[in-house]
User: What shape does this take?
Amino acid sequence: MTKKSNITLMSTAIIATGATALTTGVNSVHADTVKTTDTNPAQTQTVKSNDQKLDDDITNAKTDVDNAQAKADQTQADANQAKSQADASQTTANGAQSSDDQAQSDLNAAKDNAQKAQDTADQATDAAINDAKNAINDQKTQNAQNEQGVEDAQSDVDHAQDNVDHAQSDVNNAQKDANQADSAANAAQKDVDHAQDVADGSASQAANDQLNDAQNDLSQAKDHANKAQNTANHADQHASDAQKDVDQAKNNVNDTTKAQSDAQAKADAAQKAQDASQKALDDASQHQQNQNQVHLSQGYIDALNAYSQASPNDANYQQVVKTLITATNNEWAQNGGYVSNANDQAIKINSKADLDKYMAELNTYAQQLVNNVRDQFGTSQVQVSNGSKQVGQRIGNALTDENWNSLNGHDMNVNRNVAQANGLSQLSDQDMNVVMDKVLSKSWNLSLDDFKKALYESMQNYLFNGVEWNHATSIAETRLGAKGKDVWMGLGWSFFTPTAETNQGVPVKDGEVVITSLLNFMYDYTIQDSSKFDAKAIPDDSISLDTIQQLENDLSAKKATTNAANQNVAKAKAHTADAQKALSAAQVALTTAKSQQTKAHAAVDEANATVKAATVAVAAAQKAVDEANASDAVKQQALADAQAALKDAQAVQGQKHAILDAAKAKLADANQALGQAKARLASAEATLKAGQQALADKENHLNDLENADSQLADAKQAVIDAQAAYDKADAAAKAAQATADTDEAIMKCFNKVQLLLKRL
Assistant: This one.
């Protein structure tokens, strides 16, 4: 008997026996009330006229057409849903196949690595390892010799470079001397030419013309110098203004930097507050109510509230029920998965004695499940007290003692007797559900997590079974007359051991036990003897989901503040960047102004130099005029002196060029020697590099030999891991493809149905 069939039978039993609750008295709340529509036993039969019959036939035919169209529309929707599901399943299957292919590739690579490791392990003999060590030592000796060769070659290169440097210096000095000698010889030649012109008398007019030109040049040079000075004065003022702009820009940068620092301080404070809020939320989350709460949509809440207020006699009653069924179907999707807790899974429950140790925790767990639902409906919270816990456990024990089959409904006598024995007039409400069956052998092999999961799934069954709604209204406390009461809850577990050969048509095996959970509710007006019923609520120190939500809201607000502060920091940084940009622009402008200032003053210096040169030129021109007007004897003597000076200058010029040629020859020899030394160094370095690589290769080879066993073990383990990963991926791919094939078959089935409906 599967769990699904248990739920179905339980629901059937609920309808047949009123399995949700029991009460007595005028003020009783019945969770198992079956709503029915009253009918009038007196019926009147009339004979309709032929016209009336025709009208009825037309009406019925129209109804049939409308129903057929509705079925066609629903089939179209189902076909669309099947198509989406088939596409999604195929996408999943494709992804699983891709993972499978990758796992196969990884497995192949692992096997290749394992073979390489095996080959290395086969080679790793003691002799091979000893040979590898000897080869390393020999290579180290050779490398030491190679290093000395590199050092010697480098020393030769350094010495050759020194020789080149000295030779180049000698060439430079000789070239300088030769250039000076060339200049002196050229100048002497010009002096001879000039003296010859003076002696011939041909330079007289030219000397007068040069004097006039030199005097004109001097006048222009002085005018240019004055203008250059004015430009320099303007450049000085511009540079001064640019300096002021830079100073102001620096002040702006300081201001914006301070503003940025202030904004950053506020952002840091906001972040600190956010971190504190985050810590408060994290701390609270460690003690929050269990996360396996039932989350209800507003549509379901509204639908169940409407049902609770409705009567079967209402004209829209069927529509109310239909709306509730539709809303209920939607709830399974968002409450489909129970999240297990590793700590609870580690707590083993193998007997009722084991289970009794955790009844307090399970009562709190069930209380949180119920109260979370009631929070969403805005109804009264249930309390757990020592009295309510005792009532719940005693009811479960009594049902176990008499081996009560919960599929037969509620045991009214047990509920009444236990309630009255504990100071209550009656048990107000009881929700029960078969949670586990076929627990074989004396060791149950269950955990605390299994029982919490059973309570969670019972809550889903109470609220969303889609067959009856008295469980749902009992849990949510939405029935008329149930709201606004102080209510206590006690959890019970009953254990039924089938004694016949079959149970509900299913063969009974040795050791089978059927476990039922019972949520027992006690309202305030049923307390008759407070000395027998401890009503003091046991505080639940877990953090409520509302508190968690408040902390989350506070964290959200803190994050908003932090974001705003960070935005202010960003703005301040932008202002600082703008100020820095303006400062950079001002500094560039200052640099430009100073450059222009420097150029302007250089132009002044150049203009003044021109004035000075022009002055010298005037003096020289005046001297030439004086020479042209001198006597012939003086002119001839000047020519003879100039020719003697030219001869001396040409002699010096020849000597200097001879020295330069000798220095260039020595430089060429030194460069050739340097090239040869560098070639020897490159060869020595290449030899050393090759030896170092050979040493590394030999050391790696020795390491592989010495660690061959561990590397082989790792490689073999990698093959095992890769094989396991491949097996898992392959199974997942096959399962995903099977699901895709099933969904595609369903889609094709819907398409065929849709085609048949269109033909109809």
